Amino acid sequence: MSKTFSVVFVTSEAAPFSKTGGLGDVAGSLPPALAARGHRVMVVVPRYAEYEGPKDTTIEVDLMGNTVRYYLHQWKGVDWVFVDHPSYMRPGGIYSDAYGTYGDNQFRYMLLCLAALEAPLQLPINGSTYGEDIVFMANDWHASLVPVYLGAKYRPGGVYQDARTILAIHNLRHQGVYPPYTFGGLGLPGNWYQCLEFQYPPHQRQGSYEEEGRSVNHLKAGITTADRVVTVSPGYADEIQTPLGGWGMEFLIADRSYVLNGIVNGIDMHEWNPETDQHLAKRYGISNFSQGKNENKLALQRELALAEDPNVPMIAFIGRLDYQKGADVLLQAAPWIMSQGVQLVCLGMGDPALENGLRWLEGFPNGRGWVGFNVPLSHRLTAAADILLMPSRFEPCGLNQLYAMRYGTVPVAHYTGGLKDTVVNFNPWTDGGTGWTFSPCEAGGLIQAVDNALHTYREHPDSFKSIQKRGMVRDSSWDKAAQQYEQVFTWAKIDKPYVG
């Protein structure tokens, strides 16, 4: 790579400071990977709490009558910029609390977009500002007004003429949808209304008359004004152009397919490394993975009061308990799975009815259902299990299958999104593949795929070990993803910028 870029990530969350899902993981991992490759990288994220590390820059800017202050933390080669405003710190979660979604989220993330556009101009870091020659990475609907403001407010004034914007879609289902009258609070010229106007999404309707009409849709505006669009896997990039995965935006996205790319996420190769993982009873590598997995399986069996036998196939599910992750499909297949002489261990939380389904597994001597979020247990279970189930109805990228392969655990996954890009069906004739996939997403398909996996595990152990080894050596690093993002940056700079 010869050219370096100044990249500004705009995101509503970034691990380890704030995280609710995959977006936080990406925003916490991709920027350091790009910085390690020589780029100047800034991450702009709300200051939801008084984090240890970020220091007050004392720099304030006025944004449409709202004063925000910037805090700076330099870590892993990245300039982490936290936007401070009273609307961000609150006792609940990032987006909602026990009473539901916050009513001012539109304002909070509008403010984030405006603050992110000012940060490269206002903040002297290591003696200089980032300036105007920027590649903005706007993540999901929360940051999708970045290209809109760039086109409506900055470029007409001669600012950011050399800047480019890339919209990253992590989950198209969440679009930032609000009533049309809220457009007036966004500070945009009136002739920009049609940029945001869109039909109210059918999947969000609650039955009221107003929901049959028009809406202000932040993500729609970002898709139409960004210089390029990326999403978190090639498979998901294809799906969001169809009614099956487009959530009402398939034709809009298909119209921009010429600037759309899918790049598979990486994983943290240090946190998820069986050779150094401090959570494991026995650390192991590819040279001794059979012994290592057996010892971890025995340790987890003791911990969960399961029959101690390293030869019993252990099947795992780790994930959010909701419609997307297909936890209901798993529970439908569970009686058959439990009858196959295996141990089934599930970890997750979410929908109360599905949580009760996990508790129901405890009634079986070979079943365990842990309701909750437990990072150490997720590592121990990934190391101990032979097979990981991922029956997600849709999965933009998915990380658990990548963690599993790194630990020599074979994924069985629905053939969708990033899962079909990363889980290659085992071919016994060529001895190729990294797991099993199934489609459609229903209990019968999952049962058939698990049956194939168990047959191979028991009757063809050498083939099963070959699948495990291929998964363990697969390059799932963020450096690989970063190289592909560099290509997108290059393409964005070659093209002329979007002009509204």
Characterise this structure.
This protein has 500 residues and is an alpha/beta fold. The chain has 2 domains: 6-266 and 479-494, Rossmann fold; 286-475, Glycogen Phosphorylase B (Rossmann fold), CATH 3.40.50. It has 16 helices and 20 strands. The chain has helices at residues 22-36, 105-122, 145-154, 193-196, 218-225, 234-239, 250-255, 289-303, 327-338, 352-361, 375-384, 400-406, 417-422, 443-459, 461-473, 478-494, and strands at residues 6-10, 40-46, 55-63, 66-75, 78-84, 96-97, 100-101, 135-139, 164-169, 177-178, 197-199, 214-217, 228-231, 260-262, 314-318, 343-348, 367-371, 387-390, 410-414, 436-438. Strands 3-4-5-2-1-8-9-13-14 form a 9-stranded mixed sheet, sandwiched between helices. It has a 6-stranded parallel sheet with strand order 17-16-15-18-19-20, with helices on both faces. Helix 9 packs parallel to helix 10. It is globular and about 70 Å long. The model has no long low-confidence stretch (mean pLDDT 94). Pathway: Glycan biosynthesis; starch biosynthesis. Belongs to the glycosyltransferase 1 family. Bacterial/plant glycogen synthase subfamily. It is found in: Plastid, Chloroplast; Plastid, Amyloplast. Residues 7-253 form the Starch synthase catalytic domain. Residues 308-465 form the Glycosyl transferase family domain.
